[in-house]
Amino acid sequence: MSPVSHAISSDLLKRYDVPGPRYTSYPTADRFVEAFTEQDYRQALAQRAAGSMALPLSLYVHIPFCESLCYYCACNKVITKHHSRGAEYLRHLSREVELQIEALGSGQAVSQLHLGGGTPTFLSDAELEDLMTMLRRHFNLVPGGEYSIEVDPRTVNAQRLQALHRLGFNRLSFGVQDFDPAVQKAVHRIQPAEQVFALVAAAREIGFESVNVDLIYGLPLQTPESFRRTLAQLTELRPDRVALYGYAHLPTRFKPQRRIVSAELPGAAEKLAMLSASLDTLVEAGYVYVGMDHFALPDDALAVAKRQGRLHRNFQGYSTQPDCDLIALGVSAIGRIGATYSQNAKTLEEYVDLLDQGRLPIVRGLALTRDDLLRRAVIMALMCQGELLFESIDQGHLIDSRRYFARELERLGDFVQEGLVTVDESGVQVTDRGWYLIRAIAMVFDRHLQVDQDRARFSRIL
Question: Topology of 22-326 in CATH?
Fold first, then answer.
């Protein structure tokens, strides 16, 4: 029995497998309101521009296009084989950046850039070069930053990876999900394992600093046995990072999922068995469990950041970059400036229409209250550093933590008994065992969840 199996029993996993947020932000995006307007966002940009000590920015660019539909997908995407749509979209992205710069000022330092989707590599090499040239014209992408792009293995070869590296990308994330051909067919995403292995080998030879692979457990036709085979192939591939997600079947919310045959989905017990096997396999293979869903090899920057207490979390997940403002570009993209969150229009038509009117495409967002800022600090401290230090929170927010969070600390009693956290005069510490259930621990401090117990909007946390 591995150390993980010994620490995390299937009974424990089952007990804490409840619906809950992923905490890429707090409050979570389902709390955004339409009362937050473009003017509110412009005001936040102006306040940042007036500040003299602002940290470097993070940029997120959403490219929504995909050539084919993956049935499990819950992302905002546009299915099309007409690549001419990419050039039109880039024109609107350029206009959006110009409007942002009008309020923010040009030349802002950027230490993190992420292209997500959809499929960013739907764009041609020339279009990606145009995009990067446009971004560099308006922003200062500093040396040593994290510049990453999500890659569908079916859309690239070694030559395209070389082109991405020349453009300045130093990190890749390959969407694999499962190596089993039957599972790939069931979710309409067929990509031979040999193709993925060749691309990862090419990425290493080219010199990318980190390669991530995404896996999903709980897909149709998956079994604990078949997923163990996928895990064996993954450990042979040995990417620098692994993101392991549980599939959330929500066909009423995500139309593509209606094409999945519900009877082919593994049951709850089988899903938990896959999760348990994944934890065992990856830890035994030498991966560090960074935090919720994320693993990294010990010498990867993400694992190093965890050891050194420099881990952070934003809308793209765990990051080594300091907690900073995030400019979000493209349809449906979510950003953060100061004490505000904002989201662009979710449909391409509305996004384009607003930009054609000379308006930033902000359609909703949130101005955080003092309590929101406090709880964000607490939840992010737990999820990134694995500890809540009362003195630090008290000094930063001018409160008495033990009194302010008396009810929450009481609710942690069950977690203490399970050996998931310890609580003493200095604060709350997450144990090695507790890291595997960090979402459940963070939920204790989520005021919105405590007030509104309707969790139907969330997927299960395991």
Answer: pyruvate-formate lyase- activating enzyme (3.80.30)
